[in-house]
Amino acid sequence: MSSETQDSSITEDEKDRQYRERMKHYKATKHLTYACNPILHEYPRLAYFGVGVSKDELIAYVHKHNLLYKDPDPKIDSRLDDGQRMAQSWRTAAERLSDIVEFDLDLQLPRSPDYDMVVALYSNYDLEDEGLEEEDEVEVLRLIQEELGITSPGLWHFAYETEGCRRLPWIPPTAEDMRRYINILPAGQRARLLEISRLAGSE
After folding, report:
1. Most buried among 5, 35, 46, 47, by the most CB within 10 A?
2. pTM of the prediction?
3. Is residue 121 exposed (0-12), middle (13-18) or buried (19+ Cβ within 10 Å)?
């Protein structure tokens, strides 16, 4: 029996199970382990911070608010399949959510065994420029959860479309560079790095 024949015999449920098995090492995390560090010329795997959702939850939201996409050109609309129509509808849903929370959100595809999409606030590549203050971030997450009727927490999700880590030639950072880098680290990492620096300076 050919591999093509074998693949065609696999049910959709089995395909989904196999996919989630492959994704089990990409669990979303509360703390950003791989922060982008342009100061040290390190570019890690792309990750998005936001709320994980299932396709069913997004579809329910689209239908609840009559967001199902209809192209203004009847000829184009007649050629749209269900997947294309729903993809366009999800973009409209993201725009509606952005208006509600008053912050630019996006829908991203994660590598995840638990979620199909992420309502993303920002990535580890634009965190320094786009990151919110903690209390504002908490409020945006609350509004997203309330609007979608879900309880998924705000987590860091690895992006699906990534080529992994790439590294450019290292250039020694200045003292100002290091201060900027330390300021964008999560509080725990920042405290550890400052303690290491203090101990090194006392020797």
Report:
1. 47
2. 0.66
3. buried
Q: Which residues, 6+ apart, have CB-to-CB distance to 57 below 8 Å? A: 148, 149, 150
What percent of the chain has a predicted confidence (pLDDT) above 90? 31
Phi then psi for residue 4, to 5 deg, are -65, -40
Sheet holding 106-108, edge to edge: 106-108, 117-123, 47-53, 154-158
pLDDT digits (tens, 9 = 90+) for 100-132: 999 999 999 888 888 999 999 998 888 878 888
Residue 14: both structure tokens together: 């089995």
- CA nearest neighbour of 166 among 128, 127, 129, 125: 125
CB atoms closer than 10 angstroms to residue 165 = 11
What are the contacts of 140-147 at 24+ separation with CB within 8 A? Answer: 140/101, 140/103, 141/51, 143/100, 143/101, 144/50, 144/51, 144/97, 144/101, 144/105, 144/119, 145/51, 147/61, 147/97, 147/100, 147/101
Q: For residues 49 and 46, what is the distance between their CA atoms, to the nearest angstrom?
A: 10
pLDDT of residue 11: 82
Segment 187-199 shows an average pLDDT of 57
